[in-house]
Give the backbone structure.
Amino acid sequence: QVHVQDAGGGSVQAGGSLRLSCAVSGSTYPRIHIGWFRQVSSGKKREGVAHIDSNGRTSYKASVQGRFTISKDNAKNTVYLQMNSLKPEDTAMYYCAADFSRKTVGRMLNRYEYNYWGQGTQVTVSS
């Protein structure tokens, strides 16, 4: 059974940094997509922030490009989201998600493409 564990959130001041981690276990599929999503509140849409696949290809939401970096450690089956120059508008619950099906360009950050989700980790950026 696939299990996704996300962690690393916290509270920082604007301009600060945080690193989120996402550990995926229980998969035997050769292909994997990992996405980071965020949701400001339960009534808001969960938006894609960054994605990485098993070939190392990455994609980012435009507003985080240049500030966030997604990377993976294959030996640890862990994906990291390094978030620098954080802004108050980055405040949200961040979720890691995994999926194993083929994806077309443009859908890597679509939440409906992911079937396995972590429980989320809160990121709060104060001004």
Notes: The chain has no helices and eleven strands. The CA atoms of residues 35 and 51 lie 4 Å apart.
